[in-house]
Write a structure and sequence with these properties.
This protein is of the alpha/beta class. It starts with a strand and ends with a helix. It has a seven-stranded parallel β-sheet, sandwiched between helices. Strands 10-9-8-11-12-13 form a six-stranded parallel β-sheet, with helices on both faces. Strand 11, helix 14 and strand 12 form a beta-alpha-beta unit. It contains 17 helices and 13 strands. The structure holds uridine-diphosphate-N-acetylglucosamine (UD1). Uridine-diphosphate-N-acetylglucosamine binds next to helix 1, helix 5 and helix 11.
């Protein structure tokens, strides 16, 4: 059988690496093609992370780049369709919830190729979030759905997905984390490499959601809160390109530099693991980081009103902090006083999710491709 796998944006890479490794180990008879859509194109967003994960070079890069949602999604579909027809895979495997996920799933489904979705069934319930739309649509287009947390199954059943299509595989992002943790770069080393001293204790901040960073007023309010917090806890802030552009445009960058906030470029995966592991507290609006901090038992404040990953709050070390600056600062101070939530490890976040996916997929191929 021939399986075509899609990567597009940085968080896809940590999910795909263990999947390819599991197929290579458990099912070498499956031919794998790897296509990069080029949604993320910066070296900082890509090359180092490929190297850190030992992810092989894609067979092809569609180089779609950025654009409005419609432009980007349409461009991915336009460029991907002939590639899909040319490679003629038996199935296409997509991960996560980025625009490339839904774009490639739609092309494949229309061409009659089965779609496999890894990280199915996550729902924030918030349709203002572009990723929520991508999640709902991708799951509707998928033939085989692998979930990362137990609650995702109920979300899929509610949307009419047949239960025999759903498999609780566990979290592939945590497969990568557990595999790479021994290689994590110590914070001292990565900060020195970027020209900074490492504070004895620190908080780690990441922000890139359009709802938090695209509106100048909203971003300024959040940054004011972070400036306030930084007098008690120095903050390390690797800045996503989307956020960097807004900080520069609004002049906020200058204000941050007057406080104990270290602005860093997008980091490699092993650097990020080291910084998360060493943090007193992580503040983020990322999906993956909510999961990674839960796996590490590091307290996390999620700067959003909802999460599609509720197990990180119910069982893990995550707290939904909302976006009100005063409330965030007060929750952060509480973590500093009490040490914060440590949580426990959710079911199947055990480093073997990709193996479950490879095994179930081979079984599924055997049933479908039987003469
Ligand atoms: C995308 C995903 C988001 C994911 C995030 C991880 C969608 C809808 N969003 O958001 O779910 O959490 O990736 O990073 O698919 N840019 C660069 N270099 C790059 C990529 C982007 O400079 O390599 C800049 C461009 O100015 C671009 C902006 O970032 O306009 C946004 O990029 P885009 O791919 O649209 O979405 P992300 O914000 O990265």
């Amino acid at each position: 059988p021939h399986l075509l796998c899609i990567v597009a944006a940085r968080p896809n890479l940590m999910k795909m690496a263990p999947i390819l490794a599991a197929f290579a180990r458990l099912a070498p008879q499956v031919r794998i093609s790897l296509v990069h859509t080029g949604q993320h194109y910066d070296t900082a967003m890509n090359a180092q992370v490929f190297a850190d994960l030992g992810l092989r070079e894609p067979d092809l890069n569609l180089e779609v780049g950025s654009g409005s949602h419609a432009q980007q999604t349409a461009e991915i579909m336009r460029r991907y369709e002939p590639v899909h027809q040319d490679l003629a895979p038996h199935a296409v495997l997509v991960v996560g919830d980025v625009n490339s996920t839904v774009a490639c799933a739609l092309v494949a489904a229309k061409l009659g190729t089965p779609v496999i979705h890894v990280e199915a069934g996550l729902r924030s319930g918030d349709r203002a979030m572009p990723e929520e739309i991508n999640r709902v649509l991708t799951d509707q287009l998928s033939d085989l759905l692998f979930t990362s947390e137990a609650g995702a199954r109920a979300n899929l059943l509610r949307e009419g997905i047949a239960q025999e299509r759903i498999h609780f595989a566990g979290n592939v992002m945590i497969d990568s984390l557990l595999r790479q943790l021994p290689e994590a770069v110590p914070p001292l080393v990565s900060l020195r490499a970027h020209g900074h001293d490492c504070p004895a204790t620190y908080g780690l901040l990441t922000l890139h959601r359009p709802s938090n960073v695209d509106d100048a007023g909203r971003l300024a309010a959040l940054m004011d809160a972070m400036c306030g917090l930084s007098s008690q806890l120095p903050l390390l802030f690797p800045v996503h390109p989307r956020t960097r552009a807004m900080l520069e445009k609004t002049g906020l960058e200058r204000r941050l530099r007057e406080h104990a906030i270290v602005l860093l470029p997008p980091l490699g995966y092993l650097e990020m693991l080291g910084l998360m592991q060493g943090a007193r507290l992580v503040l983020t609006d990322s999906g993956g980081i909510q999961e990674e901090t839960t796996a590490l038992g590091v307290p996390c404040l999620t700067l959003r009103d909802n999460t599609e990953r509720p197990v990180t709050v119910d069982e893990g070390s995550n707290t939904l902090a909302g976006t009100d600056p005063a409330a965030i600062v007060s929750l952060a101070r509480q973590v500093l006083r009490t040490g914060g939530k440590r949580g426990r490890i959710p079911q199947h976040w055990d480093g073997h999710a990709a193996e479950r996916i490879a095994t179930a997929t081979v079984q599924w191929f055997a049933e479908r491709l039987a003469p």
